[in-house]
Amino acid sequence: MKIKAAASETGDPLLLTPGPLTTGKRVKEVMVHDWGSRDATFLKINREVLTRLPEVVNGGSDYVTVPMQGSGTFAVEAMLTTFVPPDGHVLMLINGAYGHRAKKILDIAKRKVTVHETPEDTPPDLAAVERLLEGDPTITHIFCVHCETTSGILNPIGALGALAQKYHKSFLLDSMSAFGALPLDAQALLPDAIAASSNKCIEGVPGLGFVICRKAALEKTAGNATTLVLDLHDQWRNFEKAGQYRFTPPIHVIVSFHQALTEFFEEGGQPGRGKRYVENCRVLIDGMRALGFQPLLGDNLQAPIIVTFRMPADPNFKFQAFYDALKERGYVIYPGKLTVADSFRIGCIGRLYPEHMRGALAAIRDILAEMGVKSLKAAA
Fold it and tell me: pTM score, two decimals?
């Protein structure tokens, strides 16, 4: 008998991933029309998007949104290469793949970097970070990933922001997978820039990155950028002067993002969206633990974005077969990204609700039985 697969509002498999992710029907539907990039209707839509994004992080009038065509990494590279001048020195906090990617960006841009690296399941050592700041006054910037989706770990951005203020450093934050889901108060944290993208917790489609910039800091970045297209200062000045992108914008993505942002605020903004994701995460972890799976992180470090589970040592558990069987039932998950252990990941974000997580758990239970898996204990 053919299995009835789970599906989204538009009949697609459910993406239990950290983005791109399952989006709502209306978010997709608004893309079937065309707009001119210099037409007043589109410019109004785009202006509303840029104006509302700082509200998500309590930015007030001190912060402005500078959009950047492309994926989230485009926004991160634009942030780093615009805000870090040629003589800058970045204290780079790394505990996963996206920290390493940021370091590669700075290496290519020939910016000086000092690395503080901890294992993928360990947040930065705040005492060690402070010693580095005390010992090297040439450090000008601190960079951190808010939620490192390599593992799903939540990094201590509040404490790091406090250190940046104490030592008068510029704080640059990659909040790609956390923006809109986790609390972030720019007035308290005082970052110079926060990078995020359309296809994460606001639940839009891929194609637009953006950086929420402290205006006073952005004004000082003229001439820093290492590329034309990723120059946030130039992009911002063009919006200030003409209200338009310098180069062709991803119009359909922006209009879709406008709809997603409207639905985000209708759900209650960050508190409402975050509450749903927290419940998704709780249902997932409780259910997987009940089955016998071992999450990588303790509850105190786990962000409600994506959860890493250790790969069972049982020889009957074959990840590709497990993945394919889940996809056949309408659930798409992610392979692991850890360097220290075999793992796989299941996301909690997107247009998903607790009933979807329960459906995935039921499918996992059935698949394990079909595979003949007896033990879910991870390899040592």
Answer: 0.96
